[in-house]
């Protein structure tokens, strides 16, 4: 495996989907910057595993609700020896509320993690990439936002979470327009992919069977889509929906309830 001197920052990559993304990127020859907030132990274990399989890894702690932490994270990535070329906004805050019960604190937290932090990190990568372009005219970075298929088949549950993911959808389109000289920006909107905390396998499989195709997104499909986006130099401003057709016949209530 040939290690490229290019880094991809994957937010929330200590465990779950982010860890799978980091492993796949390492196997494809990229250097990965692992971000975590409170999962230090998981981040260290993931980094150790990636190093054992021949990867180049760095670990970075940041609370994505804190702007100073985001600024610190950006500076750490920019100071590395390799070139920062990619950003996968995988981190997400997900907590139940509805339109009558939501608290302003939850609205702010959902928006901070799922929208504001990705917007700030995308802006930082765009500024960094413009500096590189002065030396390498054809240099182009990329951003991949992990959104949610829920926004294409709406129901009223998870009210402020859904609002924040709709904002992330808008960010994908607007930043693709705004930073087109230096970045390609795309999104992936998966359905239910991994067991939710507290969910058993039977309930997980039942939720999949509610979809038109009797299945939903898999980790492998998400990883394949990430590679498609990275390698498709003409793709920008596009969101790929992976949900087994659920958005074509959305349930009246969230499938997790």
Descriptive report:
- The chain is of the alpha/beta class and 257 residues long.
- The protein has a single domain (6-194, 217-242), classed as NAD(P)-binding Rossmann-like Domain (Rossmann fold), CATH 3.40.50.720.
- Helix content is 42%, strand content 16%.
- The protein is built from seven helices and seven strands, in the order βαβαβαβαβαβααβ.
- It has a seven-stranded parallel sheet, with helices on both faces.
- Helix 3 (67-78) runs parallel beside helix 4 (104-133) and helix 4 packs parallel to helix 5 (159-178).
- The longest helix is centred in the middle third of the chain and has 30 residues, at 104-133.
- The chain is globular, with a radius of gyration of 18 Å.
- The mean pLDDT is 92.
Which SSEs are present, and which pair or pack?
Blueprint: E1 6-10, H1 16-27, E2 31-36, H2 40-52, E3 57-61, H3 67-78, E4 83-89, H4 104-133, E5 141-146, H5 159-178, E6 183-190, H6 201-209, H7 219-231, E7 239-242
Parallel strand pairs: 1-2, 1-4, 2-3, 4-5, 5-6, 6-7
Helix pairs in contact: 3-4, 4-5
Structural class: alpha/beta
Q: How many β-strands, per DSSP?
A: 7
Question: Which word captures the global form?
Answer: globular
Largest β-sheet summary: 7 strands, parallel
Approximate helicity band: 40-55%
Number of domains: 1
Integer average pLDDT: 92
Strand fraction: 15-25%
Point out poorly predicted stretches.
none
- CATH topology, by name, is Rossmann fold
What is the level-2 CATH architecture name? 3-Layer(aba) Sandwich
């Amino acid at each position: 495996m040939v290690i490229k001197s290019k880094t991809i920052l994957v937010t929330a990559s200590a465990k779950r989907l982010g860890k799978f993304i980091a492993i796949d990127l390492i196997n494809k020859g990229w250097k990965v910057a692992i971000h975590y907030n409170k999962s230090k132990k998981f981040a260290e274990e993931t980094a150790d595993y990636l190093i054992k399989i021949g990867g180049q890894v760095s670990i970075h702690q940041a609370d994505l609700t804190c702007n100073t932490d985001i600024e610190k994270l950006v500076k750490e990535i920019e100071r590395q020896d390799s070139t920062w070329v990619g950003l996968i906004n995988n981190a997400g805050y997900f907590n139940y509320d509805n339109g009558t019960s939501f608290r302003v604190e939850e609205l702010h937290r959902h928006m901070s993690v799922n929208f504001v932090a990705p917007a700030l990190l995308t802006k930082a990568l765009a500024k960094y990439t413009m500096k590189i372009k002065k030396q390498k005219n054809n240099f182009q970075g990329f951003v991949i936002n992990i959104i949610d298929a829920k926004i294409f088949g709406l129901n009223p549950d998870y009210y402020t979470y859904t609002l924040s993911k709709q904002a992330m959808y808008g960010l994908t389109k607007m930043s693709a327009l705004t930073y087109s000289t230096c970045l390609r920006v795309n999104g992936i909107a998966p359905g239910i992919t991994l067991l939710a905390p507290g969910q058993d396998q039977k309930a997980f499989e039942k939720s999949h069977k509610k979809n038109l195709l009797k299945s939903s997104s898999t980790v492998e499909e998400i990883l394949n889509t990430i590679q498609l986006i990275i390698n498709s130099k003409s793709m920008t401003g596009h969101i790929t929906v992976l949900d087994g057709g659920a958005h074509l016949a959305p349930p009246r209530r969230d499938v997790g309830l």
